[in-house]
Amino acid sequence: MNCAISGEMPEEPVVSKKSGLLFEKRLIERHISEYGKCPITGEPLSMDEIVPIKTGKIVKPRPLTAASIPGMLGMFQNEWDGLMLSNFALEQQLLTARQELSHALYQHDAACRVIARLRKERDEARSLLSHAERQIMPMSASTAVAANASALSNGKRAAEDEDLGPGGKKLRAGISSVIITELTECNAGLSQQRKKRQIPSTLAPIEALERYTQLSSHPLHKTSKPGIVSLDINYSKDVIATGGVDTNAVLFDRPSGQIVSTLSGHSKKVTSVKFVTQGDLLVTGSADKTVRLWQGSEDGNYDCRHILKDHTAEVQAVTIHATNSYFVTASLDNTWCFYDISSGLCLTQVADTSGPEGRPEGYTSAAFHPDGLILGTGTSEALVKIWDVKSQANVAKFDGHVGAVTAISFSENGYYLATAAHDGVKLWDLRKLKNFRSFEFNETDTPTNSVDFDHSGSYLAVAGADIRVYQVASVKGEWNCVKTFPDLSGTGKATCVKFGTDAKYIAVGSMDRNLRIFGLPGDDDASES
Description:
Blueprint: E1 13-16, E2 22-24, H1 25-35, E3 50-52, H2 69-140, E4 152-153, E5 156-157, H3 177-195, H4 206-209, E6 213-219, E7 228-234, E8 239-244, E9 249-253, E10 258-263, E11 270-276, E12 281-286, E13 291-296, E14 302-308, E15 315-320, E16 326-331, E17 335-340, E18 345-351, E19 363-368, E20 374-379, E21 384-388, E22 393-398, E23 407-410, E24 416-421, E25 424-429, E26 434-439, E27 450-453, E28 459-463, E29 466-471, E30 481-486, E31 494-499, E32 505-510, E33 514-519
Antiparallel strand pairs: 1-2, 1-3, 4-5, 6-33, 7-8, 8-9, 9-10, 11-12, 12-13, 13-14, 15-16, 16-17, 17-18, 19-20, 20-21, 21-22, 23-24, 24-25, 25-26, 27-28, 28-29, 29-30, 31-32, 32-33
């Protein structure tokens, strides 16, 4: 007898009490578990109504086709044909799946390109909107700032008729929310880069610095009024700018050893020079109370774009923001000004009234933190003040120096601040807001005039009665003096110092008229004058 479901002889036969039909046990169990009824009659059926039948071992009879050799060959042929048809169907399905996957990947790639293009257009639109608002904002505030824009005639700023507020103070447009957003985004980007920052492999090693010597000396300023009091380096062009007592700023091409341009216009010594790394611009501050913004041209000459007269005393420092769109000036009039480079407008002028009555604390130095949201200033009363640029609030004060704070330099690591004064150099930990190391020198009559961290944050240069280079270490580590250079000017006063690219050379200005380059013998690209 055969199973009522499969039609074949069952191996484990069972019979239904209701219908009397014979089934294969495994087949009827599966059917009942799924449907709960008889597959033939459709009546409700449970396993309790299934009775097993005891039989002897059943030997299935051989199929008729397997009873002869031709029958077996035919059976094998049928199996082979079925296998080939199944394989062909699988290949067709695989080809279809590949085509669908290729199409999906192409659509994904096209979508990614569209998204990238839209993001680029969005960022460009934001940049244009920010630039437009910076230009429109002073115009919309014209009722408050009548003529703060630069109107030049032959490089001179036209007469100013500024609206005055209470107390006779000039009204300023202020730092707008758009500018604050720009500063914040710049800060976030630079902070993220700093986490991945590594010391470049091209940085000059300590062994090389120990062998540095004077490579060249270049007389850049007038003999009648000798003295270089400030310098800066345009690293992309390897051009050095110096500010002199002779009222001139000089641009010097180090590789060729030639003077590129001499900028005349200030009436007193040029106390600060700073390159704007984008746009071929130079900003100079002077003891004549003015700041000048110079624009370079293709022929190498520089023209004065703006003359800024917002301070009432000597301008002692200029520092450029990391966006290259703004800069700050600090003056002995106890104020610092925040300027927009493109328009030359003073957006805000900040005065600190927290000092003692009758003792104005004029600013003698200033520098932006590498991330751009913190400004450090040094005062004539030996104080270092830290400012939040967004709110223009004084958030910290460091004391302990003797004499005016002559120079400030933030390390590229974002944690260390070096300050110089008459009593030497102090190092501050910005995370804990405290002094963790001091360098005091024996030359009591000569103040320390300049400090500079190299761009990698590995070395610190100090200029005073001589020039010293220290290896930067941790807060608790030992800051070793790697090299000491004597002041070869004969004046005993090195006034400014700056590391070249990868600390491959050191530029030094002194109270004679010569710019001196120190480096490794044999690596000198500039000719000896």
